[in-house]
Amino acid sequence: MGAIAIITARGGSKRIPNKNKKNFLGKPIMCYSIEAALASELFEEVMVSTDDEEIAQIARGAGASVPFMRSEATANDFATTDDVLTEVLSEYEKRGRTFEYMACIYPTAPFVTAEKLQNAFRILQEQEAWSVMPVVQFSFPPQRCVVVNEEGELQMKWPEYAQTRSQDLEPYFHDCGQFYLCRVKQFMEYGTTDLPHMLPIITSELEVQDIDTMNDWEIAELKYKKMTGMP
Question: Of 61, 62, 201, 204, which is the most buried if we count CB atoms within 10 A?
């Protein structure tokens, strides 16, 4: 009853072709997630869930396990991450292996480190949480946002906040898109990583970047260089 790291690396990518195996500062981007999971020494199993044989070969070369390929049902555009995780855990159970803890690590998350995973695991255990997730604060207060109305004009979405100082507004956060650490029993019961008793790891904007476009990719490389001191 140990822990498993599941890296979800589907072959298809519409906005950045071959995104999960694309070179990021010298190696396929998914290798960063694999290496962080292995270096943390938290997991009995570090596996990649994929439908792509080339991704499977890269994963095995980086030290991960690919004991089975993803099914058609979880390889399409409509399958959720929770669907993939449920399939992986169920398949391992069929093979006689169960786990107490699970980390879902995204394949395009070079900012994940062994230390961050270890810290998340400490929080999960010491505070008896069911789930832990890195989050980052919105850099601009969402309460001060504007929308385009039916006449094509700008107006405040919430005008009651127009004169409120930014520092007096409640801070809002969003998912970093890096990893989730969960207790497997509760995940399987609720069918989601968004569990009750979920705790945050508040993360610096310098170590967070959604990667959906090539501009995002270039920004992520700049941030990664800053984080690691890479020239």
Answer: 62
